[in-house]
Design the sequence.
């Protein structure tokens, strides 16, 4: 692979805040044209890693190259070619939707005519044309998020960094945002996404790393990670209070593994319906049962012993 095909390369990357080590020696390689994800719970080190890549937080140790350059020495040159979508929208509520785009474009040295044309194009992309002259404050959360993403594209970046892009959005708004991001990737923009939503990682990412406690615990495609670390299906069983643990011995030999969570049992198997029928014949009587496919949440649970929302 040529150096030009690698947009971000980190080797032994470390970030400390005083005595606290937020990122603990990770290796990452992001290739041109892919959607790459950092998946993990809050506090895993995802945002700290993103700020180092965005050249807004210096690394403590290790090597980091972004767009072939050193963030410590060439931060302004790198930032000129990046788009950054922060975790919290930081739009200017005193300006209209269109003005938010135009003013931001001027920071990158675009002419008035260029920012006017670019704003019109991005309003169309974000499906905000009919709200162009409205104030920002009354917009829905999903509209504000789409505007923040549109603003990050003003300078036509090669690399777009999105930190928890859909946190707080309703399902319809999340799916619309995913569609916009998929279109960006199809147009050749490289995406780096942090998320603690496994369905988002599966929808958006070609490849991802699973982070926990500042370390990378697994890396691969979503489908590859699930195939490597989990079963094809998961049977979820819920029981009345205080009856859950008593049923575990009746299930252990029916599946590859059984996870005991506070509110349910997870039985990992390639045929959930068959295991449910066998459990029923043994006198297992859950209050509810669900057979579903394995997800990245199950991968994280297998690797760390915790769920992503712990």
Sequence:
């Amino acid at each position: 692979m040529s150096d030009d095909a690698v947009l971000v390369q980190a080797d032994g990357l470390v970030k400390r805040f005083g005595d606290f080590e937020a990122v603990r020696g990770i290796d990452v390689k992001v290739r041109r044209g892919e959607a790459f994800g950092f998946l993990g719970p809050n506090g895993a080190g995802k945002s700290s890693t993103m700020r180092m890549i965005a050249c807004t937080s210096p690394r403590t140790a290790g090597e980091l190259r972004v767009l072939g350059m050193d963030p410590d020495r060439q931060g302004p040159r790198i930032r000129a070619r990046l788009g950054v979508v922060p975790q919290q929208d930081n739009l200017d509520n005193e300006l209209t939707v269109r003005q938010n785009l135009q003013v931001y474009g001027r920071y990158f040295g675009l002419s008035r005519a260029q920012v006017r044309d670019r704003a019109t194009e991005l309003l169309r992309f974000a499906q905000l044309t009919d709200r162009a002259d409205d104030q920002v404050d009354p917009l829905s959360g999903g509209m504000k998020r789409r505007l923040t993403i549109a603003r990050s594209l003003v300078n036509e970046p090669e690399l777009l960094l999105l930190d928890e892009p859909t946190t707080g959005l309703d399902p319809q708004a999340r799916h619309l945002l995913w569609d916009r991001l998929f279109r960006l990737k199809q147009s050749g923009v490289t995406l780096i996404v942090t998320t603690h939503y496994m369905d988002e990682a599966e929808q958006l990412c070609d490849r991802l790393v699973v982070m926990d406690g500042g370390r990378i615990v697994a890396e691969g495609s979503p489908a590859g990670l699930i195939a490597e670390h989990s079963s094809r299906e998961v049977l979820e069983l819920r029981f009345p209070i205080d009856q859950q643990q008593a049923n575990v011995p009746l299930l252990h030999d029916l599946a590859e593994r059984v996870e005991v969570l506070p509110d349910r049992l997870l039985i990992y198997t390639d045929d959930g319906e068959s295991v449910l029928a066998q459990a029923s014949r043994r006198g297992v009587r859950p209050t509810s049962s669900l057979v579903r496919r394995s997800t990245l949440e199950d991968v994280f649970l297998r690797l760390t012993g915790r769920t992503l929302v712990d």
